[in-house]
Amino acid sequence: MDMNRVFLETTEKQFIYYKQLGERAMEQLETEQLFQTWNEDTNSIAVIVKHLSGNMRSRWTDVLTTDGEKPWRERDAEFVGDFNTREELLALWEEGWDCLLGAIRSFMPDHMSQIIYIRNEGHTIMEAIMRQLAHYPYHIGQIVHTAKMLKLSSWESLSIPRNGSSSYNEGKFSKPKTRKHFTEDKLQ
Predict the structure, then answer these.
(1) CA-to-CA distance for 23 and 16, rounded, in angstroms?
(2) Helix 45-60 crosses helix 125-151 at what angle (to 10 degrees)?
(3) pLDDT score of 153
């Protein structure tokens, strides 16, 4: 078993899982809620999406040949909410994820130890992937938490619903043991 291939396949599934979590959270909101902030020190969901997209496009465009912090990236501008339609937000969201997933899908197992740079600091591709696999879910968690606060009692759970663990586990343990990635079933 080629562990680097398994790593790439698992990583892609994991990123897609977090992408879908963010999408399912945003789908539950009215458009104006995507742009809501509580004070000047908090980011709206739209601003978080803008930052994620900027980071993804910078880190994963020409990843094998250029530094992950591109000269054209304006990180500080990512934290300015300068658009206000759901369509713009979702287009930016898709642009970032397409860039990331395209890069992941382009890697070969023997790329994992290749050195690439982020802000002039060397990382193996595997290290760079792990760095972003920690960074992006951090922000997806912010999106989910914010969306849940905005929805209050009408929130549709994105995981095992409260007081549903026993029933969920009963269903899992009623089946034979399997070897698969947890995302191969519908989102949990």
Answers:
(1) 10
(2) 170
(3) 76
